Amino acid sequence: MKINSIYLTLIIAAIFVSACQREEDIPPALILDKEANMTIAELLSLYEINNSVIYSQIPEGTVICGTVTSSDKEQNCYKYLTIQDETGGIMIVMKNTELYERYPVGAKVFVECRDMVIGHKYKNKQIALLDDDAMVGIPKSEESLYLFTDGKVGPEPAPRIITSRNQIDSTYFNCLVRVEGVRMQNGGVDTYCPDTVNTYCSRNMMLEDSTTITLRTYARATFANELLPIGRCNMTGILINSSSGPLLYLRSLEDISYPNQ
């Protein structure tokens, strides 16, 4: 009996150590003892997209705050976070490819914008670091210098409803949206992105007023080889601006709902 007790103690100790090691693999984001002093809309107003200006320096001491809406768990929202407050949304360029555990959807994130710039890529506004006069993502090793949380995870923001491409303006970009009444071109026939493609695929979402919005899926997404939905559905995701128009990025297939079900 004494030997069995020793074995049981060793097993419990091993489980405890293993659990601790798993927790250490995902260090928590740091807690910030400051408050936001600029809204996201005010930050966005610091930069106008044109052909001559690549980026603008964010004023020293700027702190913004927003709720995380993107998730890279399924690898479609890749190397960025989108956060939004009551005034708008912004993309934060990152180098980390596993952000969803440290910054889950619904987490409130504070961004201390020291040494950061605001600019655009293909007309989508974003904030990033600067290296050799180019915008680059925040390295994983430096996240603790810029990103902080309040230690809580709440609900995601209510998505902005889109029923026509014509209603989209700049305030929708980098925000969570739900495109309603969608029918996918070649639904049930085409996949989101086939194996023959190694970058990304664009699929047409046809809305009830005959306007279209592009659904963008990266080849790395875990659901890339799944068939596009058949029939009328609603699609929730992150709306990104681009040179060719708005792009919707699903976070997972759970972002699709069927109004008649």
The total of beta strands comes to 17
Mean pLDDT: 90
Strand content: 25-35%
Intertermini distance: 58 Å
Radius of gyration: 21 Å
Secondary structure category: mainly beta
CATH secondary-structure class of the largest domain:
Mainly Beta
Q: What is this structure, in a nutshell?
A:
With 261 residues, the protein is mainly β. The chain has helices at 2-25, 40-44, 143-146; strands at residues 30-31, 55-57, 63-68, 80-84, 89-93, 107-112, 117-121, 124-131, 134-136, 147-153, 160-162, 175-184, 200-206, 212-218, 233-240, 247-249, 256-257.
Write the layout of secondary structure elements.
Blueprint (H helix, E strand, L loop, with lengths): L1 H24 L4 E2 L8 H5 L10 E3 L5 E6 L11 E5 L4 E5 L13 E6 L4 E5 L2 E8 L2 E3 L6 H4 E7 L6 E3 L12 E10 L15 E7 L5 E7 L14 E8 L6 E3 L6 E2 L4
Parallel strand pairs: 1-10, 5-8, 11-12, 14-16
Antiparallel strand pairs: 2-7, 3-4, 3-6, 4-5, 6-10, 7-8, 8-9, 12-13, 12-15, 13-14, 15-16, 15-17
